[in-house]
Amino acid sequence: xxxxxxxxxxxxxxxxxxxxxxxxxxxxxxxxxxxxxxxxxxxxxxxxxxxxxxxxxxxxxxxxxxxxxxxxxxxxxxxxxxxxxxxxxxxxxxxxxxxxxxx
Length: 103
Ligand SMILES: [Ca+2]
Ligand SMILES: [Ca+2]
Fold this sequence. Notes:
This protein is mostly helical. The chain has 2 domains: 1-36; 45-96, EF-hand (Recoverin, domain 1, Orthogonal Bundle). The chain has helices at residues 5-35, 45-48, 58-64, 70-76, 86-96. It is rod-shaped. The protein starts with a helix and ends in a 7-residue tail after the last helix. It binds calcium ion (2 copies). One calcium ion binds at residues 49, 51, 53, 55-57, 60.
């Protein structure tokens, strides 16, 4: 079926407003994800370091925390060598108040 040109134009406009709506919805979802409370990164270093090389890699980190954020990993990696060592981990936990519950 061949549509008149004017109708094509209408459809295109509709598509555009749908796309705008979709983009709005996506940004709302993104905002909600951002506003959601942080995961509690209160793990013990030894539990995260599954191969016991005294370094926690991103792979170990995300295996330990199911919804780990890479930004948090990078933040904890103070010397930016791509792994988290014991002291970096403690500084990270202290900064956010994770852990240090049992004393
Ligand atoms: Ca390790
Ligand atoms: Ca590091």
